[in-house]
C-alpha cells in the first residue's frame, strides 16, 4: 500500500470548455482569456470580431501608422498586459458571484467583466503560482482557422466570411473600396474578391486535392471528402484539416492566388507545421511569435473584419504557451479524442453507455494483465514460446498447431486472441511436423 499523490499541471480543452474550467466566458467583446478586458474587439457584420494585431508589432513599425489599409485607424496601443495567477486570484476574491441554479439571477454586473464564477482550481495551494493554467487546444484552433480560411478563399457558401454583410461593413467603415458591393445595375451584386478563387481555379484546386495520395497511415483518404462539382468539402475531420493545412494548402494555391495573398497563407502553414513539431527550439518559437503577428496583420490588410473570429485571434498566444510549456503534442486533444473514440466504440447497450464502457475496460485490463503473466511464465520440460511481440506473432504456425484453417491474407492481422492462443498452444503442445499440401 502507498499513498498516491497527484497534481493538476494544467487543463487541456476546447474553447467552449475553456470558459467552464477557467471561469472566464469565451463569448462577447472580451472572449480572450489571455488579453481579458484589454482585447481589441468590435461589432462587424452582425458579430463580434477581434482585430488590432498591430499591437504586437514594435512601437516604431511602419504598419502602426497606416489606417485605410487596416480598419481605418492608426494603432497606438501597446500589446495587452499579462496577468499573474496571484492578480487573477485577488480579482476573483473581490467579486461576489451568485450561486448556481435557475432560482438565482445569472445576469453579470459590469464589474465582473467576463468572470462567471471562481474556478475550484484556485483552492489548490499552488494554482495561482502556475505560469500556464489552461492550454489553448491547438487541434481545435487549427481546425477552426482552416475552416474559416479555406471557406473564404474557396468562397464556399455558408462557410465564407466574405458575405454581403461583410461587404456592407466595409462600406460603413469606408475602407477597401474595391470590395464594396457592385451597384452598376439596379441590383447590388457581390463580385469575386481578389482573395477568392474563381470557379475554374477552384475546380482545378479541388481536382488537385482529390488526386493526392498519402503514405499508408499518414492521413485518411481526403479525396473522399472533396466534392469537385459542388465546389466544397464535406465532413473533414480535425486531423484531415491538420494535414491539409500543412501539406496541401500551400502547394495547391501557389499559382492560383495573387502573391500577396499566398505568402501569408504559406507563412501560416509553416507556423502550424513548426509549432506542432515534436522538437521545439527556443529560437524557433521566438521567430514563430514574430511570424504569427506578421500573418495576422497581413490578413487584416487582405480579408474583411468579419474574417477575424476569436479563433483567429488566439493564434497570437500559441507561441507564448509553447515557450512556457513545451511541445504542443503533449498538450492537445488528439490522444484524448482518440481514447474517447475507442471508449465510445465499446458501447453495446445504448441505454447504459457507462456500464458498457466499464465492462469493456475491465475486460481490456484483465486481458492485458493475463497477457503479461502468461508471457513471463515458463513451464518446465517444454520449450518456452519465442519472445515475440503481439503484432509479430507467426499466425500460420499458431493456426497450424491449433488445427484451424489458414485465413485469407486480408484477415491475417494479429489480434489479442491470436496472441493468447499462440502462447497457450506453444507451451502445452509438442509441435507436430509441418503439414504438407496433400494433408490439406
Ligand atoms: Zn488575446
Automatic annotation (TrEMBL):
Domain of life: Eukaryota
Pfam families found in the cross-reference section: DUF4218, Transposase_21
Domain DUF4218: start-end pairs: 275-376
Name this polypeptide is given: DUF4218 domain-containing protein
